[in-house]
Every structure is written in C-alpha cells, then in structure tokens.
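Researcher: Here's the sequence for the chain we discussed earlier.
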Amino acid sequence: MLKKLLFLVIITSFLFIGINYAKAENSLSFSKSESSYSGRDLEAGEKNVQLLKFVVKGENDEKIRIDMLSFFSEGSSVDFSNYLENVRISNFNNENLSESMSFDYNIAEFRGLDINIDPDGQRILNLLADVKEDLPSEIDSFRMYLIPNHVHAVIDSNNDIINNITGDVRGNYFDIGIEEEVDTEEGNSNGRIDDEEDNEEELDEAEEKNEEAEEVLEEEEEKLEHERERIEEEKERIEEGKERIQEEKERIEEQERERIEEEDSDNELAEYRKSSKDLASGQVDNLLAEINQLRNRVKEQETEIKYLKGLTSELSKIGEKMKSAINTFITYGVDDNTQKLGAGERAAVINSYEAAFDKLPGNEDELNDVIKIANGRWPSITNTSAENEAKDEFENIYKRESNMNNANDNAAVTIMAYGLRQRAENRNLQSESAGINTFKNIYNRIPEDTEDWNILQAITYSGATR
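Model: Thanks. This is the structure I predict for it:
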C-alpha cells in the first residue's frame, strides 16, 4: 500500500457575507473539488501547482472574507512551509486574487481577502503554490474547516451566526474530496470515487490509447508491406527487362555471326569484307594492289573537290580516316565491278547511302554495306523509314501496294530505298532509255537527284509491274 499524505486545508477566521437578509435564507455551499497533482510526487522547481480547485456557491453578491489558511497532515507533523511557497488564491483563469502575506510553518495569512460571489451565484477558486523541495504526496482529500471566531458556523455582516451551511459537514470540517461531487441543490454528496476506480479509469484510458497506437502501427506495417511488394515487383520487372535485353543481344550477335559466316562462305562477300577492312584501316596501298592500280594524289584531290564538296556538312560529323576511306572508294573503286561503274556512279552510291540512313558510313560494317550496294547486293543494315518511303513511291508508280514476298516487288522497294546499282556487265542502255521515258510519263520531268535515279534504277531493272 502506498502511504497517503493527507492535506487538510483550513480556512479560518472571518468569513463575512456582504448582504443582510433573513437567517432562514442565508446559505453557503461548496462542491466539486479536484487537484492537478493527485497521485504523484511534487518536485522542486514546479510552479503554479494546483493544490485545490473548488466551487463556492451562494446568493448573488455575497462576499467571503478569508484571513488565513492552515495546512495539516493527518497523523504526522509536517512543516509545509519547508516544501511550498508563494501560496495564493486565483480565479478559474488562474489570475491571482491575492498572495499570502506570510507562510510560516503551516499558516498562510491573507488578512481579510474579500471574494465576491459572481452574478451566476457561484465562484470557482484555485489554491496555488510553488514547490521549493521534493514533496512525496498522494492526496486522498482536502478538508476545509469553517471556524470563524472558533465557532463552527459562518458569521454574516451583523455578526449573527448562520448555521445552515450546506454540503457534507462532518463534525467540525467540510469534506470536499479530490474526486467527490456535492449536490448543492440537495446538499447531498454523491460519494468519493476511490483509488481503485481512479486506477480503473486510467487503465481504461491507457488501454484505449494502446489500441489506437496498435491500429496505427498495423496501418503502417500494412503500408510497409505493400511498399515491399511493390519493390519486389519492380525488381522482377527489372530482371525481366535485363533478361529480354540479354536475349536480344544474343540474338543480334547470333545473326551477326551467321551473316559473317555467310559472307565468308560467299567469295564475293568475303572480298567485300576484306576491301571494307582495308578502307576503314587506311590500307590504300593494299587495296590498290588488289585492283592493279597506282595511287594518284591529284586524282584524289579532284574527287574531293568534285564529289565531296556537297557533303561537307555530313563529312564534318565523321573522322578523317572515314573521310579518306570514302574519297578512296569514289576515286578508285574496290573491285572490278565498282571500277567499271565509274567515279560518278560510285559517288551516287555514297549519296544513296546518306539519303537512306541520314548519315555517311562511319565504320567498317557500314563501308561493307556501301560496297554491297554498289555491287547490287542487299545491305546488312536496314532502315525501316527509308523502306516505308520506298513502298509509298512504289504504290505511286505501280498503282498498287508492294508485296515484299514477291522478288520483283522486293527488289524495286530495296533499290529505291538504298540505291542498289546494277552490275556493270548487266547494264542495258536501251532498257535505261525506256525507263527514263516511263519516269517522264509518271513525273512529267527527267530524273534530277539521287532519289530520282534510284527510282529509275527500280523501274528499269526490278522487274516489278502494275
């Protein structure tokens, strides 16, 4: 059992009521007191500790005069002035009505503090103090003694004794326990709620708060679990994406291996690969030895001036080695067929490549496609956009959609898209003349640029018909 320290607050000396009326009507009552520190120890340095809050009721404009308060500890002698200081009375807003003149041992003197009853017939009062030293305390109740002139009654302004003080008057004190409610109309107490009931209420509140905290925690855990699931799903998507990328990479590598193997098994394609390697690495002498030519620097300069001048913008985007490779291809060719085509046709192949891919060849593989195009072979690298434009042109020429499963239609679209050249030994000037007439009938003009000459090649050599 916890040791309880019982504070007994005694209001002594004169309590004056400021209005005269018949004794039968005079009354004074107290109700509902409480303390802000019940059930805990007071610690040194605490300010504005509410020792007691109570309601004084009476007639409108009645006046209470307080001269002093006495503090008592039941069963022991305690000097509360060693523990408390600045004992004062305040209203319900904690605005000071008066501070004690002195606080010696357990006596707080106010020397005639008049407190008026409010128009609503009551006045809420607080007894406050500051804590000087630690004071262990578990308050059971306060008891307010009504002993003006040492007589257990209240004296009115005519010094007449009024005996009908309502409330729970027990012997010579007025009991207003911490959690006790007094019915001021009936003058009967509803009884004190004991410590066990207080504890039960506190436990109920604690359990309710604990349940609320658990609900919040469950919600947070649920959110966290959802976030974990989302992260796991995202990880799975990333892994799937990596797998798809790896599969695509392996597929492309496999296609490249097959293409190289095919080229290696095809003597012509193998020669093209060797020539593109010499071009890309700047091995001009090796290339010229293969085609039995001598290097001619003047001719190379003439080629640059005549054929590369219009490609200045695109040439600035590639390195000097690639620029030199293109110049070498146009100047000399790389094999018997490209030699026979002539420099103009070889330059047209470069222009066709630039038109199809919106750039000049920039590495060995792209130079290899240039050589394939010049020899009438399908390039390894393709451009869907260029092919779609060629399909539209096909429909304009032949008044129908192209069928890419048809060899002739496929050839026409590919020639227009990439500028595939007819091999020199297969060229037919008569067929080309007829093709020019067909072109003029369709477009009402003669071929003017690279795209036009590619269209003419398709009309002349693809075999496609309306």
